[in-house]
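Example 3.
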Amino acid sequence: MLDEATIARIAEEVIRELTKYGVPAAEHTKQETGEDIDSPESKRETLLTNPQDGEALQKMKRATTARIGVGRCGPRLNTRTMLTLRADHAKARDAVFADVTPNFLEELGLFTVQTCCGDKNTYVTRPDLGRKLCPEAVETLEQKCRKRPDVQIFAADGLSSTAVEANLSRILPVLTDSLTDKGLTVGTPFYVRFGRVGVEDHVAEILGAKVVCVLLGERPGLATAESMSAYLVYNAHVGMPESKRTVVSNIHKNGLAAVEAGAYIADVIGKMLAQKASGVDLKKG
Amino acid sequence: MEEILSVGIDIGTSTTQVVFARFTLDNTAGYFSAPHVTICDKKIVYKSQAVFTPLKTASLIDGAAVRAIVDKEYAKAQIQPTEVQTGAVIITGESARKENAAEVLRQLSEFAGEFVVSTAGPDLESVIAGKGSGAWQYSMRNECLTVNLDVGGGTTNLAAFEDGETISVGCYDIGGRLVRLDKDGTISYSSEAARLAADTVGVSLSVGRRVSAAELERVTDKMAALLAQSVGLLPEEPLLRRVKTAGSSDFQTIRKPSRFFFSGGVAACMENEETNPLAFGDIGVLLGQSIKKTFSALSAPFQPGGETLRATVVGAGSYTTSLSGSTIFYTEGVFPLKNLPVCKLTAEEETDCFEGRTEKLGQRVRRFLQQNQTSELALFLEGKSDPTYKELQNLANAAAAVLEQEVPVPKPLLVSVRRDMAKALGLAMHRCLPDRKLAVIDSVQVGQNDYIDVGRPLMEGLVVPVIVKTLLFG
């Protein structure tokens, strides 16, 4: 039997031995953390051993964000591929469950209202509640917002707060400027927490806006969590068919740049007002 | 979907040709994305015969006669110049060195259609021929390195393509009409480059002398060897540099191309087994045979292009026009814009603009206008893939302030960005300069010393046709 003192002594000796040989354990940790296996550079690396045409594989990898040329271990993914996959999945989950920071919204001069969802769990499990503003929110909008504007723009978390933080400060001012240039009245912008696309119908009804536009974070994939979409409706009302929505998607740094999206959406809104239509009824031309 | 008609006209050393092509444009973006208009189909609808380029004197092109040839081809194709929406007239080889080359080119482009632009320059010629011959497409389809040699009457234009990217171009004074003969074999003309090559093999090409086919073959063998040297198949001799076309780039290939393509009039002679070597009163047939012999002996994989004699004109008709990005900005009636010299900003100058400083941009634009002795220009910048609102505003303010000061009213202002940000930039600049004629386009690539032409909007105003080119005469 070993008593505690003996165990402590043995442990001390082992540690001393390890120190003498340059602490392989510590070195190992350093190696693991020294390289970010989730970085774009790291993902560009070909993990496949002995590819028949390495150069062609690199070209293919450059053309897609899909995990190709990663090799395998028996029927399974390699550890590194598995880890990047899980890291990307974690980012996607974070994007869904994180909140947009109040500071960020303050800098943009946006106030916050909430839908009928009290928390994230309700939000992800009850899409119907995410399409409806809570009574206090309705009251706040009635007090603070300009009534019957040509265009009402607001932001919502949707399924990615990361996307809102990545794009909103770029897209919102360009969109507002461009609409004002067209001589249109733009409503008071704000932010809806726990908001789904359909909440714009409720907002439009409350404020009597001709066109409503929500800028919202898209459900993250494993390629990017920063993708934003704009959903636009002419004369929106609760219960209208989904086919009345016009959408501009894929707004992020590797897709349509946020500033360019803002300028483009302003043009689309101009067309919607001219044609008094949106969604499938709108001729994009 | 929309169709447009394009024309290509090539005034070459030996022949003048015309082609018409029809492009189909379509918005290929998904329903939920911003538009993305591309040229999704190109079809050649008419090819003219190759007619000898009429000369007035040795140093003057007969402009009126060229115009008559083109006029006749329009009639034969049953096409009115007003129907032609885009296209290019290119003056190539020795024709580009004639005294009145620029004038002939200008008049012809004006006649051929509202947005038919004039182009010239050995490097541009090389790229156009390589695209017309199919070498470019082959490199793209097979993801490999190809080299096109367009062997014409006066020059051989080289272009190397890798995976559809032009990686090197060059031009040499080697061609089929550098020596011309009367019916009895007396030399009526020989160029300096031909005489240089002939000297090294001990053949005299003095005008008035009678030469035998065997002697000429020694000269064309030398020329073929020079071509093999130019693409790295043989060690280079000093003579090669002496026959390099003035104003052309240094052609280089790092590794051995997967395939050589030959186009131009001489390549056409490689295909047809012409029995009389002096059938055309020049060395074209002999040169074609020499090239075939030399490249075969070096076991270089080569083939004639899909187009040989017509590669350049097909290239001019089909591959000079590109489209701008599909979210752009322009004020009413600003197009067409023609022959604007491109002022390409350095990375440093661009950073300054994004950070809100205008001095460097101002100096650069002033110097550019002075050097080019012009009062208008196209400002080109790389742009950013995801600029902030502040950066966008800074750039717009800087560009607006400088251009307003340096480019006199009523000249239009053109800004071209490589990244997709033209609409946002254009709107912001227009806010600063509401009364100026302004166009901001994106997704366009240019090089130093290029010129840019921009046509009227297509696809209900979504895109504009753009031709980036050079205007270099010999």
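Chain B is about 35% helix and 25% strand. Chain B has three domains: 2-120, 125-311, 324-469.
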